Amino acid sequence: MKITLKLFASLTDYLPPSDRSSNITALDVSPDASILQIIEPFGMPVKLVHLVLVNGTYIDPTQRATRRLQEGDVLAIWPPIAGG
Fold first, then answer.
1. Could you report the per-residue pLDDT of 29-51, keeping only the tens digit for each?
2. Could you say which DSSP state residue 66 is in?
3. In the predicted model, is pLDDT for residue 17 greater than 80?
4. Residue 9: left if φ>0, alpha if ψ -120 to 50, beta else—which one?
5. Higher local confidence (pLDDT), 47 or 59
6. 19 vs 26, 30, 38, CA distance in Å?
7. Which of 20, 32, 64, 74 is the most exposed place for a label (fewest CB within 10 A)?
8. DSSP per-residue string spanning 5-55
9. Spatial contact of 48 and 11, defined as CB atoms under 8 Å apart
10. 78 membership: H or E segment, kind and range
């Protein structure tokens, strides 16, 4: 099934080079894949996967190993952000 992955801030470095300027990549994933299984091939350290949204809805860290996506979903991920 097809989904869209959006990575923000420093996480864009984990996208294929051709997708880094747009921060978006289209993925073909198994319907049985969890969020963690979907992002694993990108090599992002788990500590950098801070804010996770599916279609704009926050996904708690305790749900990321079991939450499955649907055809056409948008998975958006932000790293921890510091500032002041």
1. 999 999 999 999 999 998 999 99
2. T
3. yes
4. left
5. 59
6. 9, 21, 17
7. 32
8. EEE-GGGGGGS-GGGTTTTEEEEE--TT-BHHHHHGGGT--GGG--EEEET
9. yes
10. strand 74-78
Contacts for 52 with CB less than 8 Å, ≥ 6 apart: 35, 58, 59, 61, 64, 75, 76, 77
Looking at residue 71, its pLDDT comes to: 98
Residues sharing a CB contact under 8 Å with residue 1, sequence separation 6 or more, in sequence order: 28, 29, 30, 31, 69, 70, 71
CATH code for the domain defined by 2-78: 3.10.20.30
Q: Where are the domains of the chain?
A: 2-78
Return the pLDDT at 16.
92
Reading the block at residue 84, the tokens are: 């002041």
Terminal CA-to-CA distance of the chain, rounded, Å?
Answer: 41
Query: Quick one: pLDDT band at residue 84, thresholds 50, 70, 90?
Result: low
